[in-house]
Amino acid sequence: MPPNNPAVAGRSGVAPWLLGGRHLVALLLFLACEQALAAQEVFGVSNGHLEIGLGHEHGDLTRLTDAHASQNFAGTASSGAGLWELTLLPTEKTLSPADAKSFDCQSLSGRQPALRLTWDQFGLSAAPALRVEVVVRLEAGQPMSRWELGVTGLGELGIRQVRFPRIVNIPRQENERLAVPVWMGQQTAEPRKIFAGEKKTGRREQWAYPGLLSMQCLAFYKQDGPGLYVACDDAAGFNKAFAFFGDGEGGVGCEVLHLPERLAASNHTWRLPYAVRLGTFEGDWFTAAERYRAWATNQVWAKESRLARGRVPDWALNTALWVWNRGRSPGVLEPALVLQEKLGLPVSVFWHWWHGCAYDTGFPEYLPPREGAESFTDALAGAQAKGIHALVYMNQRLWGMTTRSWREEDAERFAVKGADGKVHPEVYNTFTRAPCASMCMGTDFWRQKYAGLAVRAVTELGVNGIYMDQACTSLACYDPTHGHPVGGGVYWMQGFRAMASDIRRRCDSRREPVVLAGEGCGEPWLPYLDLMLSLQVSRERYMAPDAWDTIPFFPAVYHPYAVAYGNYSSLTMPPYDDLWPAEFARKQPLKLLDRKYSRQFCLEQARAFVWGQQPTIANFLPAQLDDRAEEVDFV
Fold first, then answer.
1. Which among 13, 128, 295, 600 would be 20 to 30 A from 500, CA to CA?
2. Cα dist. 371→225, 330, 585 in Å?
3. Which of 385, 396, 618, 364 is nearest to 519 (CA)?
4. Where does the pLDDT of residue 18 fall: very low under 50, low under 70, confident under 90, or very high at 90 and above?
């Protein structure tokens, strides 16, 4: 901003002669820094709530200031990091504002303050007319801004990824917090320590959306004070990631990483199909959730959610308690019946290891059930006659690479490929180390394969629903033979919608609708899933101690639009799949845990209840009604 801007001059509003010596020195240093920063800026815009300043040479973001709190959230780019960064194809060349020989900024007319920034003359022989344009608009009556980006004159070049906007060297505050909606949500009170890295070399984390990031936002703030709010207003589910990073010396920054659709034909123009919103607030993560909620609950996924439309089957909606047991029917259905009699309310089962293949290695060879189809269906029908309903496990994207079906069906053709054109195996089983491949949701082959198996489980075995493990995740696929845009796009969500609709349509003849549940939570899946498994209430049980704590970020936004359930809360040692190698099996896989872990058990149950989830107990055995009566009574 120009030095004579009132937002810079006289910001404190306190006469220097009223301050003590130490405070006077601090004030003079602050004003000197402000004036030095202002001298670097020739472009600025303000709506009275939010002030934005941009460097005169390359358009670097140097000021994102909350006018009420006088807190700036953008520092100068000591590393030369600009407002944006493009990675071009096929050269993998990285382009930033500093590479442009020409930069211009113009005010835009309109009801709200806005600027257009343009960079050109990059000296690229393959794209001599390349031009990058950014438009920033301030929103009326609040400290919020919208950032748009477009690229023209690409020639024969493509774009692999875009980093925009980039906010670096965020000024330090006391009692800082970083809140990120990783599925249910998590926050840390030590963000600068975490992102400095163990060896002070700097650390970076990025969270993919749609996927582990359940919502398109993050918040970095002083507890109960000024905060930075970053979000996107993408209602279609394009691939992207939010990133937070450190420089190893306490400096931190954040950016949004976009993966453009790469179409088969050369396209000389690309425009970000949504805007990034940067703003400020005062409060904490819940304040950020309220701001996000105001936008998110007006989007199609909220309006069309299964819960909002009254489409969740009554038995799933009215389940009072889930029993999460594994294995053959006697160890699953009989404990549920005992607990239902004890409770006097509807109990449903969440059933793993019913399938004929080993867990985490033999997918998708689920059928027939490991105890045989007749035994399985008879036991299930008997339990259903007494009011028990069953969700059965079927991972919706993994295929075991050591299975016969992987070879015979040439499944590798339809697996997700990385940018190098190769399958990148995923290993989950620590005993066998057998690899699995993620199948591409953009292929009709995989959708038909999975839907066919799910429909057989419903129509032939009589299960009430399918738990689609790893549902709330997505991957970018670079296989040009799959028929979808290479890299980024919306094909994953479109594919999931088609697959879920196909399963429901083919199960229509049943007396009651099929229930589809998914792991984790994510806003784009709200119209397709009846239930969302949210296990972060048990984070201490399955994660090594770290500096992150679980927060109900997603429920704070979407509780009226989603039914959440799930809990690792167990009173026993973990079970062991009898189809895994016998030499690793525990002698007593369901042995009662030491009583010292009972407080953790109760904490997980209490969190789930207070945060609006359907209660769940894992590895329940009837003997626990006596052996751990106090804990079960707490449930």
1. 295
2. 58, 10, 20
3. 396
4. very low
Helix (H) or strand (E) run with residue 189 in it? none
Residue 131 tokens read as 């031009």
Residue type, 287: T
**Nearest of 346, 339, 351, 343 to residue 379 by alpha carbon:** 351
- DSSP secondary structure of 66-103: ETTTTEE-----TT---S-EEEEETT--EE-GGG-SEE
Q: 61-66 and 50-55: which strand pairing?
A: antiparallel
| Structure tokens, 459 | 């129509």
Nearest CA among 368, 355, 373 for reference residue 467: 355
- Amino acid type, 113: P
| pLDDT value at 20 more than 60 | no
Q: Yes or no: say if 351 and 391 are a contact pair by the CB < 8 Å rule.
A: yes
Three-state SS letters, 296-364:
HCCCHHHHCCCCCCCCCCHHHHCCCEEEEEECCHHHCHHHHHHHHHHHCCCEEEEEECCCCCCCCCCCC
Q: What tokens were used for 527?
A: 């119209």
Phi, psi of 106 (to 5 degrees): -135, 145
Nearest Cα neighbor of 181 from 216, 232, 230, 206 is 216
Whole-model pTM: value is 0.91
530 contacts: CB under 8 Å, gap ≥ 6: 306, 307, 311, 312, 313, 316, 465, 515, 516, 517, 563
Tell whether the model's pLDDT for residue 30 goes beyond 70.
Answer: no
Task: Please choose, from the candidates 72, 13, 66, the residue with its C-alpha nearest in 3D space to the C-alpha of residue 37.
Answer: 72
Judged by phi (left if over 0) then psi (alpha if -120 to 50, else beta), residue 210 lies in beta
Q: What is the pLDDT of residue 268?
A: 85
